[in-house]
Every structure is written in C-alpha cells, then in structure tokens.
C-alpha cells in the first residue's frame, strides 16, 4: 500500500472505501511504470509516445531534468538508452539511483544555494551544446521552485517575493507568471540557452488545462505573458511593500520563434490517469463515481463545502487540482490538510472527505493530506480541538496530528496536482 497508515485510518467501512479509491489513484500515476509503457528503442529509433527520433542523426544525447518526477523519469531513460547517453543533470526534491546522469537534491518550495548551483550547471551544459546535439528534457511540477537563476536579484530576494505572493493568496498560475519574469531559465529561456541543439521535452502536468507554458514555469515553451502581466500581479498583492524591497526589475521572456523551431514538447502524464482510476475503483465498490472537476481551484477553506453540498446518495465526487491558502497565522499545515479541516463542520452523516498531494508531501509536513468523516466533528470536540482556531492559525497539521487523521505516504514518484474525493453513502 502506498498509504502507509491505511489500517490506522480505515476505522470504518466508508473511510476504508475512500482510502481504497485514493490508493488506486496514486498507483495509477507512478512515473516509472507509466513512462516504461511510453518509451521504447528499436535500433536507432527512439519512440516517445507518438514521436520518433533517429538517434544516429545526433552527435551526443544529454538528459536534463527538473521537478518532482525527474529522477524517476531519468531512471527509465537510462534503462532504455543505456550507453547512448553522453551525460546529464537532474534537479529533484529527492535522490535517485542513476548511473549516467547526475541527480541533485534541491530544496522546495523555497530555493536554496544548492538549487542556484545546480541551475548554473544546467545552464552551462545547455550553452555548451551544438546543432548536432539532442537534449531530452524532463519537466514536471516543482521545477518552478527548484530552478533558480534569478534576474538581477539574489536567491533570498526571489524567495521573499514568492513568500509574499503565497501569503497574499496568489494562485499557482499568478505565481508562475511572476516567476518567469524573475528568471533567466524559465519562460522559454532554457530553449534559448540550448539553441541551436534539438530539444525533446517530456512534460508531466500539474496545472489547469495542461498548459505546457505553466508547468515548472515553462522552461522549454514559448511564453505569451509579458513583464506588464507580472507587474500587475505584484501590484495586486503589494509584493514589494511586503518584501520591503526598494525595486524589482523584471525580465521579458524570449519571443523570437527561432529559439523554439527545434523544440518538441510532449505531454506525458496528467491527473486524468489518477481520476479515471479513482472513478473505476469507486464504481467497483458499488458507488456512483463522478469526476467533479479535473482542476479544482479556489480558497481551500471554501471549496470543500461546495464539493460536499454537491453530493448525492451513494455517490463519490472525484477531483484534481490545487486550492489556495491565504496565510494569516503562524501554524503548520498544507492546502490539502486545510481543505479537509475546513470541510469538517459541513459533513453530514455517512460522508467522508479526503485530499492528498499526489507527490506525497503537503507543504513540507509529514502528511500527504488528511481524511475526515462525520465523527471527526465529535472527536475534535472531545479532544478540545476548536476547528475555527486551527483554521485561523493555518495550523491544520497540528489538528490532524492530534486527531490521528493525517494521510502518510512519504515522497512519491508522481506529481499531477492534488487528488480529492467526497463520499456519501
């Protein structure tokens, strides 16, 4: 089981069913298993989904990866290509057992000097390439934070800006627009540095509508946003005042099409795999399974109530997405835990709600997310835990730690946004 504390959490038939549904969703998006079915090599012809490449046309092949699935994907590429790989570097949040590719473990969600140094190595490698070289890029969620090559800012100043956006309640798309214009590698700059080499980018989506320019802030994708767009967002959230920075010079993303003429971006995975697997499992357990939304958005404290209110008898509503937490307190938590905590007062008899991060980590806590049912209201009162107080302090982790309802998986080889379900008997 990927849910390590499954037995401890499955204290009722309905909770067990809910956890079984989530478990199937997590199993369906294992990067190594999915990628192994999508990549093959016959002679010199490399097939990646429907894209075919004759490797004899290239002088050298390099693997460059960023994001939470990049080491797992790198392992598959090593198994397929073996000694055809000339080298590479991957920047991930966890280590990988790679032989031909260097795997660097960076910090997330805020960058560190390790991230800066690894990004500098990636840029140097890209700039060394020729027109006869091939880059197989692995791009996945988490890459926006891991890649750190700030434009006329220190890494600490960039981190201050990102913290201010998060505290102000900026959603992931707004944050990524600003990130692109604070960077010299995101928003298409990766492609500029690699020019005139050929790039084939394997992309794992964790964003709405699978917009490739938003995933990891689109390092290999032509960006349509502008400095003016980023400036409006920073003004909206009063970022410079909150950061106490005197100024912030923004960098325009590259618009010249020549840098993207030899770039192919391939969507390898999104959350639909997980959601369909969850729906199928719900139906096998006798429920009417329905995909409510593949990218649920909004304030975490508000969205759960809407989901619960939409439940019908004997139904499971399934969703993917990333809700937003406006940070005003000093507690510890994550959007998945806050989502479930805020939903508890609205749960009716025989209802269960679960939300987990598909990468297994909900904002640097030891939980992937949380589970709650109707009894959670009574149990919390018995323990003297005031839900409203924990919400005001953004302290959902402490609440679920006391309740024993945090979902534990450890870091997983996937990242396709959060997985959410509401169940009604």
Automatic annotation (TrEMBL):
<dbReference type="GO" id="GO:0008887">
    <property type="term" value="F:glycerate kinase activity"/>
</dbReference>
<feature type="domain" description="MOFRL">
    <location>
        <begin position="316"/>
        <end position="418"/>
    </location>
</feature>
<dbReference type="InterPro" id="IPR025286">
    <property type="entry name" value="MOFRL_assoc_dom"/>
</dbReference>
<dbReference type="InterPro" id="IPR007835">
    <property type="entry name" value="MOFRL"/>
</dbReference>
<dbReference type="InterPro" id="IPR038614">
    <property type="entry name" value="GK_N_sf"/>
</dbReference>
<dbReference type="GO" id="GO:0005737">
    <property type="term" value="C:cytoplasm"/>
</dbReference>
<dbReference type="InterPro" id="IPR037035">
    <property type="entry name" value="GK-like_C_sf"/>
</dbReference>
<dbReference type="Pfam" id="PF13660">
    <property type="entry name" value="DUF4147"/>
</dbReference>
<protein>
    <recommendedName>
        <fullName>Glycerate kinase</fullName>
    </recommendedName>
</protein>
<dbReference type="Pfam" id="PF05161">
    <property type="entry name" value="MOFRL"/>
</dbReference>
<dbReference type="InterPro" id="IPR039760">
    <property type="entry name" value="MOFRL_protein"/>
</dbReference>
<feature type="domain" description="MOFRL-associated">
    <location>
        <begin position="19"/>
        <end position="240"/>
    </location>
</feature>
């Amino acid at each position: 089981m990927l849910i390590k504390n499954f037995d401890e959490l499955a204290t009722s038939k309905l909770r067990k069913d809910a956890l079984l549904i989530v478990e199937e969703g997590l199993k369906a998006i294992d990067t190594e298993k999915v990628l192994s079915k999508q990549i093959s090599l016959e002679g010199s012809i490399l097939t990646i989904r429907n894209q075919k490449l004759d490797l004899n046309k290239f002088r050298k092949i390099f693997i460059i990866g960023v994001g939470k699935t990049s080491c797992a994907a790198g392992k598959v590429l090593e198994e397929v290509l073996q000694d055809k790989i000339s080298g590479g570097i991957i920047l991930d949040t966890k280590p990988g057992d790679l032989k031909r590719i260097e795997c660097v473990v960076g910090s997330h969600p805020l960058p560190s000097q390790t991230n800066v140094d690894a990004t500098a190595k990636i840029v140097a490698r890209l700039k060394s390439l020729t027109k006869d070289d091939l880059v197989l890029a692995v791009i996945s969620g988490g890459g926006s934070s891991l890649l750190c090559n700030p434009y006329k800012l220190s890494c600490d100043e960039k981190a201050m800006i990102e913290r201010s956006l998060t505290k102000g309640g900026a959603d992931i798309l707004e944050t990524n627009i600003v990130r692109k214009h604070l960077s010299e590698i995101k928003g298409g700059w990766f492609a500029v540095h690699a020019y005139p080499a050929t790039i084939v980018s394997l992309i794992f989506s964790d964003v709405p509508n699978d917009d490739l320019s938003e995933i990891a802030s689109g390092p290999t994708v032509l960006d349509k946003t502008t400095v003016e767009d980023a400036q409006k967002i920073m003004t909206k959230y009063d970022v410079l005042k909150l950061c106490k920075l005197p100024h912030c010079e923004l960098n325009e993303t590259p618009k010249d099409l020549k840098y993207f003429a030899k770039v192919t971006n391939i969507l390898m995975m999104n959350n639909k795999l997980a959601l369909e697997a969850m729906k199928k499992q719900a139906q096998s357990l006798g429920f009417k399974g329905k995909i409510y939304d593949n990218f649920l958005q909004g304030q975490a404290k508000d969205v759960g109530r809407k989901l619960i209110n939409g439940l019908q008898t004997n139904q499971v509503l399934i969703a993917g997405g990333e809700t937003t937490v406006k940070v005003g307190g000093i507690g510890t938590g994550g959007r998945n835990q806050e989502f479930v905590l805020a939903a508890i007062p609205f749960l009716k008899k025989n209802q269960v709600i679960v939300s987990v991060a598909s990468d297994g980590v909900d904002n640097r806590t030891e939980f992937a997310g949380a589970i709650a049912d109707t009894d959670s209201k009574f149990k919390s009162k018995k323990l003297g835990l005031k839900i409203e107080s924990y919400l005001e302090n953004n302290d959902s982790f402490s609440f679920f730690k006391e309740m024993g309802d945090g979902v534990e998986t450890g870091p997983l080889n996937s990242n396709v946004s959060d997985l959410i379900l509401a169940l009604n008997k």
